[in-house]
Amino acid sequence: MPTVTIEEAQAGLPELIENLLLGEELVITRDGRPVARLMRENRSSRPCQPGTAKGMLTIHEDDDEHLADFREYME
After folding, report:
1. Residue 21: which domain range?
2. Phi, psi (degrees; rounded to nearest 5) at 31
């Protein structure tokens, strides 16, 4: 597990984050003692973008039975 001092982390945080492998932890120390852990997130998908699911849902006109379950949200 890589370790850096708090001063090193402050000086080069963007580079430290960029160089972290997915799931890898970086320990940040002050006076030789661990004070924080930095971990790169394991993102399983792209960031959400409006409209990316357009056309993926179909609601049939004769599906009133299921729509009744969502009536309170549609008001």
Report:
1. 1-42
2. 55, 35
For the record, the structure tokens of 72 come out as: 């309170």
CATH code at position 29: 3.40.1620.10
Asked if the structure places residue 62 within a domain, the reply is: no
Residue 42, judged by CB atoms within 10 A of its CB (0-12, 13-18, 19+), counts as exposed
Asked if the structure places residue 36 within a domain, the reply is yes
Residue 34: what pLDDT?
95
| Domains of the chain: total | 1
User: pLDDT, tens digit, for every residue of 13-40?
Assistant: 999 888 888 778 999 999 999 999 998 8
Q: How far apart are CA 59 and CA 70, in angstroms?
A: 13
Residue 51 lies inside a defined structural domain of this protein: no
What SS3 state is found at 33? strand
Under 8 Å CB-to-CB from 43, ≥6 apart: which residues? none
